[in-house]
Specification:
Structural class: alpha+beta
Helix content: 10-25%
Shape: globular
Number of helices: 12
Distance between the termini: 41 Å
Largest sheet: 10 strands, antiparallel
Strand content: 25-35%
Radius of gyration: 25 Å
Amino acid sequence: MKNEFIVNIIHRPEMMPEYAAKANGGKGNEVIAESLDIFLFQQEVAHKNGLKTTIQITYASLFNDEIVKIAKEHHAKYGDEIALSLLGLPCKEFKEKYKTEDFCIWMFSKETKRQIIDDCFELFFQKFGFYPASTGSYYLDAYCINYIKEKYPMVICAVATCWEEGIKAYHTCNNSWYTFIDGGPWAPWIPSKINSHIPAHSKEDDSGIVAIPHLSRDLIACFDGNGSNFGTHPQNVIRGMIYYDNKYPYLYNLIDEYRHLAKYNNGRSYNMMFVGPGWLNKLGRWEANYELLKKSYEDGMAYYGMLKKEGKLIDMTMEEYAKYYRSRVEYDEPECALWKDILYGSNKQYFWYYDPFMRLCLDFNQGGAMIDFRPYAAKLNWEVGIGTEHIYDASYPYLIQANYRAGYFTHYAGEGTVKSAKIIHNNQVVDLCLTRTLAKYEKVGENVLIKTNPVTVKFDDGLSVNIVSSFLFYKGEGKIEITREIANDIGEETVTIEEYFTGAFGVNEYQTDMSKISLFVDEEKIQYAYLDRKIAHQTAGVVKAIIPDVNTLLEMGGDNDEGEVKEGYAFSPIYRLALRKTLKKGCLKTWLKVKKAN
């Protein structure tokens, strides 16, 4: 199958962009003139490089006749799509009508969400004589998407989340940026009607749109640090100061890394650039002057234009992309990314995976340890906005999150959240988290196989054991088969391999009450009470945890001998599932399944 790299270039003409308004001291006419100039510059650069755009008209822009006129002209001349953005709400008309400084559509009450959506869509219709085929925001919750699709069925595409925009972004914005939307996809998906972070599992669950991320981001740097600095948005790269002598090879490497993802996704890869005029402020941004901001935008567009001329890129509008995606992707088809470190040039490598059952990340700098796990199978109806339990935090909860709840490396005797394996010999224990390796991707029928290079575990008595780890993802089953294979001859010596899952749940660093959790080895049960108890069976079938707060059933089984579950204590609020097998050669083969608890 021929590889296809699709790009969406999205421009939004904001008449009162937050950054420009503040930089200019709120001088309205100057801000409007500057914003219009920057929008025209962005459009000109795209068209000069042979690229079509999606013009996402904001609410404020709908009151500007010049913007409406330009959008119509560019639609007719260049084939640009005219879309509606639910960003850019704050303006004189909006604030007078809604009596609020709020501007994030997902944070309003349900009644106000409906009112704002109708207001925006009907005003758009008045100006253009048709309803848009695409829309978007930083985040669109399921309630907004379902309402839009019911009231305006012609909408088939939307910008619907900003990848890993959560606690890390909050902390790096001086604890002021209340856009908690962690735990969603990094690439296009069809959202579930129940929760827009979750890919739909069937036609009945299909919200009716194709969703795209707000930015295409670095899947290592963004997870480990502040995502606002690492995206295929040239001014993100400038803000991250990832340039030297006015050159930014990292930007091109990042675009190329997204092109490379076609290898893991049946020949299909995607990238987007979504830029408002505030990022190209005439007074400059961060330590960069306007000339550098302008040059970075021109150079980024020129790179896309070059790829298109070489037949390596297809530019599409959002509407076109939604139709393309529907023609190429099945509901249970996973999205995969074997991602290497392109920022620091190390050998660090992550594997990212999502489907309608789970989203997870494997870290091969820790021997293939699972450092992020989101139970999509739980289908959590996580309503957000005023009048709901989660007013501003739309994040999808984790069971493992090594940055928020520590991974293997903790400063005390407890354990953080991680899934890995331990190799045990003569009472000495070595965790594969202490090893470094790289992995390869393979398609096995309809399933995905990730296999590591061998790692060597050395024991004090001189025994060395080579371990190869394999992860087989079963399409449409919510199941991973994990194999830990002894790859060398260890003679008559024996080792015990322990496959374990140390979990918690939540959306941030702080653990809420875990006392509803039930832990099982076969039918024997512990009800979580922070007493550091465990159950171990010498011949165990299945170990499992039921976590009612996130509606999740987690199970592990395999060709193991012993099985164990363990509760934590107040200073180490985790739970633990483990399977063990003692052997001289061969492997321990286990499986992990995630299901909806009820």
